[in-house]
Fold:
Amino acid sequence: MASRSDFPLPAGRLEERFADKHPLYTEGEAAAEAARCLYCFDAPCIPACPTAIDIPTFIRKIATRNLAGSARTILESNLLGASCARVCPVEILCEGACVYVPWGRPAVSIGRLQRYAMEKGGSPELLERARRSGRSVGLVGSGPASLACAGTLALLGHDAVVYEKDPLPGGLNTTGVAPYKLPVADTLAEVGFLRALGVRIQTGVEIGRDLHGGELLRRHDAVFLGAGLGSDLRLDVPGAEGPGVVGALEWIRRMKLDPKTSIAGVRRAAVIGGGNTAVDVARELAQLGVAEVRLIYRRSAKEMPAYGHEWRAAREDGVVLIPNAIVKEVVRQVAREGGGPGRPERLRLAVAKEGKATNEERAAIQVDKVIVAIGRSKAPTFVAQFPGVSVDESGRLRVDPKSGCTGNPRVFAGGDAANGGREVVHAVAEGQRAARAIDAMLQEGAMVREAGVSRRERND
Structure:
């Protein structure tokens, strides 16, 4: 991994107060856990991984102390193997498919073994880079999809230039993942790893503001759109605008990056939503010491889209669910003289049936802080600057599922903007898939140009 000092971070951030969810194995622990793997002939864990890592092989290499070989096996299928080891919902992917599970025994801890292999054996020197092709690709956004695409392109010999509007690269791995799963410093270390492969990253460059899509197409032979989705959706009720009410991703960003962000004086918090982001935020607040954390969801607990294992962990942290409820109003304190709206004081709630509010009210709850996790706006508007690129009725970029190509043969896409918001590992798979398609297109173009030159030479 590259030096973490490449991207210095300020001290005093709330993120620093979180303990590691699954600490790194010791050598003995890794060896003992690796020995549990049965090295199945038709291992079901492999197809359960969206990037199809050869899991039994990398685990066998840990067992034989070949950590560099183990890391190489991972990286050959997933260039972001370090972060995926920590943020993947392994309980429903590789570990959920482990043959031990139907036997009523604990699955092999694939995620923790993968992290061990990557941290102890991972290095850019493990991967060979092809001869320079002279072709270049511009990538929009520096999240997992773009980074995986850029790294793969760099290994294939192409120049890969990533344009990121934020000061720090990494996308949601940097700004949106719970710190007890993946701290910012570790995300930036993985970015450094990709830079060591030849990926160039330009931060502070926003497409549509600093650089037009047309200029991007003129600069590069192909473009990859991996900018993700837009900002948090707002709560559309009286009193929602003002201090003390913030979107979930904005809250996570501040908590992870801004040392000025504080929870001083917050004793009672409400998180609105029932997805994985909502549950992560609720757990973060509880672990930071907020005495009362309530999750307000418009349907029943069984209908929550959050993973079951995540919600169980949230309950263990002390989070309380208020199901079948919809916020009707954010009641605020009386504004101070000459100021704007006061701080939140309580939430008025309506009873929800089938996810919709009724005229029946529930008891109001006292709050000091409200965090809204009801979704994000769809694909960024700048995509209109790329001829032939379009979005579907859900606001997702239309792409060929086999190649990631959009309606423009030189523009590809992947990640949240194309899939609507899935796990990091899916974004990685889509980025790598697009890179291979881009490479094939560039090679085909080179062959056509060479054939044209040969014909001209014969005619001469």
User: Anything to note?
Assistant: Confidence is low (pLDDT under 50) at residues 1-5. The two ends are 53 Å apart (CA to CA).
